[in-house]
Write a structure and sequence with these properties.
The complex is a heterodimer of chains A (about 250) and B (about 625). With about 250 residues, chain A is mainly alpha-helical. Chain A has helices at about 10-25, 30-50, 50-55, 60-65, 65-80, 80-90, 90-95, 100-120, 125-135, 140-165, 170-185, 190-195, 200-210, 215-220, 225-254; one strand at about 225. In chain A, α1 (about 10-25) crosses α8, α2 packs across α8 (about 100-120) and α5 packs parallel to α10 (about 140-165). Chain A starts with 9 loop residues before the first helix and ends with a helix. Chain B is an alpha+beta fold. The chains are: A mainly alpha (about 250), B alpha+beta (about 625).
């Protein structure tokens, strides 16, 4: 073959890698374990701690309010292997020799993991059926909360993929991700704000409060898709994905 | 370290900075871009507001006072700051649609500044939080310097935010508020509490009506109505003079708008209680049926509505179980499909009457508030002294008929009087004007009393009304629609107070019905057994024998055992009341926690086994 291979379209490259990644999740019981744990925990939290049934209110507040805390531990578990695994087993170099650019690879891997999270979230549909069976909820609010939850999961995941790229060890990636996500959940909480309020200008303090996942998630789950909240999550993901590409580039140079 | 690495590190730093800068920018730039997914468009400005704003002729100034600096480094005030942002945006939305007619200024009353003095002077409320004073109030003023204030915008009243702002604008932009005449046989203006020797506050409904309209009180012994009324409100009148009845009759026939509340059993209107009078009687109101018949309707003053579909639960005594009271109803405004009650989810009424349309009626009677179909009319006497509401359930037999509790009466009608009473001059009108009469008749007065719909709390020295039902909204809608400022109506039916699990109420109702039947049967058997026991004991005493023969002893033991068994069964039946609900809860819990995971595991196992057998087949080939 002396002629150069037809350059495959960007989209096609992403699609192919996306399929491979998603397939690799389901090749092992890993995806199954993750989804099952997520479903069981979200159900237990909603019923036991959120008192979904005893509240006698037809909304899913009791269910959604625990999502940030569920994601805090479950998303890093999904994210930790995205790049660390490739680095450890040495398949990263192989991946980089394929006719696919770095950012396409980053995006495809991210989207595959995000699709898995979306699947887990979609499988909580019995909750939605239950609340509609029991009463007459505001389904617009529930739809908004699902969107908000998915966006928040994506934000957690973007941090996780970046840190997974930064290290060879999945465990280290996991721990770092949990710690950093925790910071982003808690930004806007007294703990963090008090600490920075002393030595930062006001504008920055407000900016930090604005970085909290909870602030944006809560405002979306009220039932309003404010473009600022959506933009926050999307730009957050984009920023971390660019960071992932830069980190991979740095490591390649080492 | 290579150059490239250095560049990448700088790149990461830049990226972080760019992101933070972008997020700050986005909060400033992308204001008002949002999709409101809530069922009632809770977060968008409604058409009513647009019409109100469109009618403003002279510019209105709105000043939002918010202690921005003071609250900034206070972590516990973050949620308040978020809400302040919402309020700011909503006001900016108003300013936008006002096209210059609304001028908004944002004021930050920093401590010891002139702004703070101004805020205090205007009567805004400083709420102490973490040894600071936080202001968060709204002041509106118009071109003739009339002022309206909201002393503190509480976050938990977000649902009525738009209504509160639009109401403020309505008040500031109209030349003169409509005039409402109020004729009441109930102490709606407060009065004096004989027991506690303290003056009582005005009922919240009327307090709020008085803020919006010029209300003129009409004494029960008056002989005529004030002129130029936009609306007449009559509440359970007592001892009306003949001339005043005639005046009302003529007012209505001349097209005057009337809101009439009559109640066969005005629960909240009792004789003053005292040591001689521990169970004070309910005072009767005037029977106005002579007037009503001329308009084509009737309210039987001896019949009270019981409704099993909407009964509310009440606590019986201390530590008693909540039981459903068939006379206390939480009605659904949507049931009648009328714009006065649309969107009002819970209107609580107590021992209400029922409006019947007479066969000879020439008027049009439109139901505004209706009962459920499992209803029954009960005699008034049943409610007079009711220590245990369950007695109503025992006698309840559904008539399977939807009853009307409130109705809008329009169209033609005639006078209840053949001629003007003696001493009343003026032209007698025997038939309604061509445009017809305009009466809203409500067969309950308890819905007006505070304890049926609102909790008044003291918020740092201010009386703050926290509604838990829509009664107030229903009355305001009616008053406003009738007094000609109907644009506020749509704003009111926005939020929902509660979305309870209807399914559980259904289960509770079914269980109750079953339980009553079983309970009665068991009670019957218990009575019979006790009768037999006492007969046996009587015989023993008569015969004077201390010694029982073995059969008698056996019988005695049997009866006693039977009695204990029945008592236990009764207890079990009572426990069963909640069993269905608990069982459903457990079932749902299991479905939500385990069903999908189990299915997934089964599916995965199935696929894995399929692969394995395929592999082994390949190996064999």
């Amino acid at each position: 073959m002396s002629t150069a291979a037809q350059p495959i379209s960007k989209f096609h490259a992403i699609k192919t890698l996306f399929r491979r990644e998603l397939g690799s999740y389901f090749a092992t019981p890993l995806a199954l374990v993750f989804v099952v744990i997520f479903l069981v925990m979200s159900g237990v939290f909603a019923f036991e701690f959120g008192k979904f049934y005893d509240r006698n209110q037809a909304d899913l507040l009791a269910f959604f309010s625990f999502h940030p805390w569920l994601y805090l531990f479950l998303v890093p578990a999904v994210a930790m292997r995205t790049w660390a695994e490739e680095r450890r087993s040495g398949t990263l170099e192989l991946l980089m020799t394929l006719p696919i650019t770095l950012w396409q690879a980053v995006l495809a891997k991210f989207l595959a993991a995000w699709a898995l999270l979306a699947l887990a979230l979609a499988l909580t549909f019995p909750m939605w059926l239950s609340v509609n069976y029991l009463g007459d909820p505001d389904n617009g609010v529930i739809a908004a909360a699902y969107v908000g939850s998915l966006l928040m999961a994506g934000a957690f995941l973007a941090i996780g993929t970046c840190l997974s790229a930064a290290t060879r060890s999945q465990v280290v990636a996991f721990i770092l991700t949990v710690v950093l996500c925790f910071v982003f959940v808690l930004a806007g909480f007294p703990l963090v704000l008090n600490w920075v309020a002393g030595w930062l200008p006001k504008l920055l303090v407000d900016a930090i409060a604005n970085l909290s996942f909870l602030t944006h998630f809560d405002s979306i789950s009220k039932g309003v898709l404010d473009f600022r909240d959506v933009f926050f999550f999307l730009s957050f993901m984009v920023a971390w994905l660019i960071a992932t590409a830069i980190v991979l580039d740095m490591k390649k140079a080492e | 370290m290579t150059n490239k690495n250095l560049f990448s590190r700088a790149g990461l730093m830049l990226l972080a900075l760019a992101f933070v800068a972008l997020s700050i920018l986005s909060t400033l730039i992308m204001r008002g871009w949002r999709i409101d997914l809530t069922e009632n468009q809770l977060f968008s400005v409604s058409e009513g507001t647009e019409r109100i704003v469109g009618r403003i002729s002279e510019p209105v100034h709105l000043s939002l006072f918010f202690s921005d600096q003071e609250s900034k480094s206070q972590p516990e005030l973050q949620s308040l700051r978020t809400y302040a942002q919402r309020v700011r945006e909503l006001l900016q939305e108003y300013e936008r649609i006002g096209k210059g007619k609304i001028v908004l200024s944002l004021v930050d009353p920093v401590p010891f500044s002139e702004d703070e003095d101004r805020a205090a002077q205007l009567g805004l409320q400083a709420v102490p939080v973490a040894d600071r004073k936080i202001y968060f109030g709204l002041v509106g003023s118009n071109s003739v310097d009339e002022k309206e204030i909201i002393a503190f915008l509480q976050p938990d009243k977000e649902q009525s935010l738009e209504y509160d702002i639009s109401r403020m604008l309505t008040k500031l932009s109209r030349s003169e508020p409509p005039k409402v005449g109020l004729l009441s046989g109930l102490p709606v203006n407060g009065g004096f509490d004989m027991m506690s020797r303290e003056p009582k506050p005005t009922w919240v409904v009327f307090e709020q009506i008085k803020q919006l309209f010029r209300v003129e009180d009409i004494a029960s012994d008056a002989t005529s109505l004030p002129s130029d009324l936009n609306l007449l409100v009559v509440v359970q009148p007592k001892g009306l003079s003949e001339p005043l009845r005639y005046a009302i009759d003529q007012y209505v026939l001349n097209g005057g708008k009337l809101l009439l509340f009559v109640d066969p059993f005005a629960e909240t209107d009792r004789m003053p209680a005292g040591p001689q009078n521990p169970f004070p009687q309910v005072l009767p109101g005037d029977d106005l049926n002579s007037l009503l018949q001329a308009w084509g309707v009737k309210v039987d003053m001896n019949q009270i509505l019981a409704d099993a579909d909407h009964a509310l639960s009440v606590q019986t005594g201390a530590g008693g179980n909540p039981v459903r009271h068939l006379g206390l109803l939480g009605l659904d405004g949507n049931a009648a499909g009328n714009n006065l009650t649309n969107g009002l989810e819970a209107i609580n009424v107590g021992s209400a009457g029922v409006i019947e349309t007479l066969p000879e009626a020439k008027s049009t009677v439109t139901p505004v508030l209706v009962s459920g179909s499992h209803s029954m009319l009960m005699p008034r006497a049943k409610f007079e002294f009711l220590p245990d509401p369950t007695t109503l359930q025992k006698e309840f037999v559904s008539a399977d008929k939807v009853q009307t509790i409130a109705a809008h009466i329009t169209g033609s009608a005639h006078s209840a009087f053949a001629a003007a009473p003696a001493g009343v001059s003026g032209e007698h009108r025997s038939d309604a004007v061509d445009t017809g009469i305009n009466v809203l008749l409500i067969a309950d007065t308890d819905l007006l009393s505070d304890r049926f719909w609102v909790q008044v709390q003291d918020f740092f020295g201010q009386r703050v009304a926290q509604p838990f039902a829509d009664n107030g909204n229903f009355v305001f809608n009616s008053v406003e629609q009738f007094a000609d400022s109907s644009d506020l109506i749509g704003l009111r039916s926005r939020g929902r107070f509660a979305r309870p699990f209807d399914k559980l109420d259904e289960l509770r109702r079914d269980a109750e019905t079953k339980f009553r039947v079983q309970e009665e049967a068991l009670q019957q058997r218990l009575n019979e057994t006790e009768q037999k026991l006492s007969d046996l004991q009587k015989r023993m005493n008569e015969s004077g024998t201390v010694q029982l023969n073995p059969q008698e002893e056996q019988a005695l033991r049997d009866f006693q055992g039977e009695k204990l068994r029945i008592r236990k069964e009764l207890r079990d039946v009572q426990h069963q009341l909640n069993r269905d609900i608990e069982a459903l809860g457990t079932k749902l819990k299991l479905i939500n926690i385990a069903l999908v995971p189990l299915l997934l595991i089964a599916l995965a196992t199935f696929i894995a086994l399929g692969r394995r057998s395929a592999r082994s087949r390949k190996a064999r080939d």
